[in-house]
Design a protein that fits this description.
This protein is an alpha+beta fold. It has a single domain, classed as Nucleoside Triphosphate Pyrophosphohydrolase, CATH 3.90.79.10. It contains three helices and nine strands, in the order E-E-E-E-H-E-E-E-H-E-E-H. Strands 1, 2, 3, 4, 5, 6, 7, 8 and 9 form a nine-stranded mixed beta sheet that branches.
């Protein structure tokens, strides 16, 4: 069974108190109750770039142009106890978009300080790669989850140039 193709986007801005990232409380489906990045599955026939533009609009009503997205890296999530949950994720950053994020039926968006991410409310793997990627480090990450599908068994991360 192959991993599902997924894509995520971190919208970044300079707020009054410093650098901020848009995350959201997941209201439905996979990750319910967790604070997550905006994103979702790549649909058949879509590229990850097309998918993230669609997902950002669907989830927070913001329009991001493909030219405004910067590739931050990839994360391969492996769920040994549930291989059908395996995901290969392409991660993007954006500092330019049109519109203001609003709540949808999937997510409640909120701006967080980049240096104070709510990791206690995120997936356990987030602290291992999110700060580096939103800080501008391009990475190829592999996350192997514990059998409970929550805890992190191992994280292997390499700089993009080494991943090739």
């Amino acid at each position: 069974m192959s991993a599902a193709d997924v894509t995520l986007c971190f919208l970044l801005r300079d707020g009054d108190a410093g650098r901020e990232v848009l995350l959201g409380l997941k209201k439905t489906g996979f990750g319910l109750g967790k604070v997550v990045a905006v994103g979702g599955h790549v649909e058949p026939g879509e590229t990850p770039l097309e998918a993230i533009c669609r997902e950002v609009h669907e989830e927070v009503s913001v329009h991001v142009a493909p030219a405004d997205l910067v590739l931050a890296g990839t994360v391969h999530f492996v769920f040994p106890a549930r291989p059908q949950w395996d995901m290969f994720t392409t991660v993007y950053l954006a500092e330019s978009w049109r519109g203001e994020p609003v709540e949808s039926n999937e997510i409640v968006p909120r701006w967080y300080m980049v240096d104070r991410l709510p990791v206690e409310h995120m997936w356990a793997d987030a602290e291992h790669w999110v700060p580096a990627m939103i800080g501008g480090r391009k990475l190829a990450v592999k996350v192997i989850l514990e059998d409970d599908n929550e805890g992190v068994a191992r994280v292997h991360s390499v700089d993009w140039k080494e991943a090739g």
